[in-house]
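Sample intake sheet
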Amino acid sequence: MNHSAIGAAPLPTLLLVPTGIGCDVGGFAGDALPSARLLAAASGCLITHPNVMNGASLYWSDSRIHYVEGYGLDRFAVGDWSLRPVRSQRIGLLLDAGIEPELRQRHLQVADGCRASLGLEIGPVVTTDAALGVHLELGESGISWGTLERPDALLRAGERLKAAGATAIAVVARFPEDAESEALAAYRHGQGVDALAGAEAVISHLLVRHLQMPCAHAPALAPLPLDPQLDPRAAGEELGYTFLACVLVGLSRAPDLVPADAGRREGDLQADRLGAVVVPDGALGGEAVLAALEQAVPVIAVANPSLLRVGADALGLPSGSVLPASSYAEAAGLVMALREGISVASLHRPIPGLQELS
């Protein structure tokens, strides 16, 4: 394994910002990207999901960052799947039959632009045999989720792309919209929840579970009217006609999802090599975090307010079982300490005395 200039080998680190829960950092259009870049530099190897990396028309490519859909992350964290880095993926484009002709053409032009300007391998293109029928929902807590009328059409289209040689899939589904809704206005002004995120997760989870290959989703929506009071965190979604570019860039080098019992190759990432998990302090109840706690992987709980309140106390975790961080900058410092083998306790004052066993 290559060592960095500071001498320590990379520390594979998992960064989770759950979708659709309104996180202050990571609840908007790629606004967790600066934190991901910092954690990638601190760890030398960051594994994270599209919700963190997707900034609509904006994106960032970093060979130290592995782009893995949320269901795949869970399977990795519990030890079912390994992540196998690749030079590039052949991205099949899956289009919802419910997309209007002009909006469909805009998405095809984005794909052509990424082929011509970024050198990505994209194709073939498959359109579902029925409109997917996406419905958006908000739970009583305000967390977003959604349903599909025709999940069967989604899975059939995915199967066709895989059979035609695609090694990753970018999905574009027509999402319902209400430009006058209070929820959308709140989101554009930096408050509330991304109402699309929960349904997007449903779509990508279905495909990854069914096909065991990298997948990510971009919603098809009509452009919104100009809003002079836009929050900077929502601005990435205002720059173009589609949100597809960031998905194509992310998937272009997404690692393959390989059964852990298929045999390890040099360079494969497996859960037993995971060195840290970074997660909002109110979102400790997810499968990946619980697996990390069970395996004694250090969990760094970052103060990142959201609608979830599943913290260490709610889970009944013993004192000291998670490492608190007041920001992602502090979390990056903790990752650096773990990577360098520095005792985190030595960084705090007072330092407790040694305990002698009787």
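Comment: The two ends are 42 Å apart (CA to CA). The chain has a mean pLDDT of 91.
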